[in-house]
Amino acid sequence: MDEAPAHWRQIRSFVRREGRMTEAQQRAISELWPRYGVETPAQALDLDALFGRAAPRVFEIGFGMGDYLCSRVLAEPQHDFFGVEVHRPGVGRLLNRVAEAGARNLRVASHDAVEVLRDWLPEACLDEIVIQFPDPWHKARHHKRRLIQPEFARLAVSRLKPGGLLSLATDWQHYAEHMLAVLNAEPGLRNEAVDGGYVPRPATRLKTKFELRGERLGHAVFDLAYRRV
Q: Which residues bind substrate (predicted)?
């Protein structure tokens, strides 16, 4: 397994915000976790064994309340999806929705996504990594907490299959510019935008309530897409 620099391992790109869980969300975690949940493994996961088949694999970091991830899980039964989220009300909501639909192509972890990517997953196992609206940590003194850093870019490359896609979105322009600078400098990635900038919103990216609220406030959204070379 890859070893990240010590200072990077200690810095979290997220803050746990448990929030209030509804009875339905709590019940979903209690009853559905054995079906969909993944706990810290002793060694890198065998994804074929985890999902019970071989299929293209999509990994989403920070799925929030799960609207986007649920939409893709249900629309793409030929793909397997692995979502990571530390906000447990969002985990419970997602589990309820996919279970009601009878979906079998989802697994979920409630853990630090960098550790999951680095320690739980083998190299070159993913067809796509999705990161939407990560915490921008907009104060300058907090920029070191941003998820998208050179170390993370190298880790993402190592877990993507050749030709695999890294898809990102943010509504913070300064963070979008930071993402471009970091990811354009990573030799293992090729920007899908011919001008080296942003791409149009992918058809698979559902507009969530969060994004629609931002649009009403006049926030632009910046989409980025990179292929592992």
A: 139, 171, 208-211
